[in-house]
Amino acid sequence: SFYYDRTDLYGNKEIWTWWRMWQFPDAEPVDTSNSFFRYHLDIDMHVLHLKEHEIMQAGKKIKTNTGEIEVKIWSYIEMDYKGQWSKHPILKFFFEIFEARIFEHDLERHKHELYRQTYLLQNQIKQYLQLKTWLPQVQIKPFHPGIGVPEGQF
């Protein structure tokens, strides 16, 4: 995790935020039999020219922010995250064979599941920011009600 906040002489703010998360497949707890796969999700956000701004809506003055935001999402699968195979004196010689032959089907299944979850997260972020989404899903009700100007009123 990382958070960096900088303000220049003109009052523009620049913010960097890095979130690093991990999850076990199928929301399994640590104690289950799957000790081989773990999902990683890295989210990097970069906000530029963030300024406080006031707008008028329905005769009320509302404080809001303006700026540019860039969100990058990376996801990957970590195999043998505990090192039970690669550090074992006997199993480390069979690790590549098991990875290529035995765990290949499970790895592909987990890759598709992580890919699906990553795109669902991207869809949720785009819905929140009111951007065009590419997934053919019903637009859900937002988590927090918006207080800005509704789209198309400028």
Lay out the secondary structure.
Elements: E1 2-7, E2 13-23, E3 37-57, E4 60-79, H1 95-102, H2 104-128
Task: Write structural notes for this entry.
The protein has 154 residues and is α+β, with helices and mostly antiparallel strands. It has 2 helices and 4 strands. The protein has helices at residues 95-102, 104-128; strands spanning 2-7, 13-23, 37-57, 60-79.
List keywords for this structure.
single chain; 2 helices; 154 residues; alpha+beta; 38% strand
Largest sheet: 4 strands, antiparallel
Structural class from helices and strands? Answer: alpha+beta
Q: What's the helix count? A: 2
Helix content: 10-25%
Q: What is the end-to-end distance? A: 38 Å
Oligomer: single chain
For the largest sheet, list the strands in their spatial order.
Answer: 1-2-3-4
Alpha-carbon Rg, integer: 22 Å
| Overall outline | elongated
Could you report the average pLDDT, rounded to the nearest whole number? 80
Order of helix and strand elements from N to C terminus: EEEEHH
**How much strand?**
35-45%
Total strands: 4
Unreliable runs, pLDDT <50, ≥5 residues?
A: 28-32
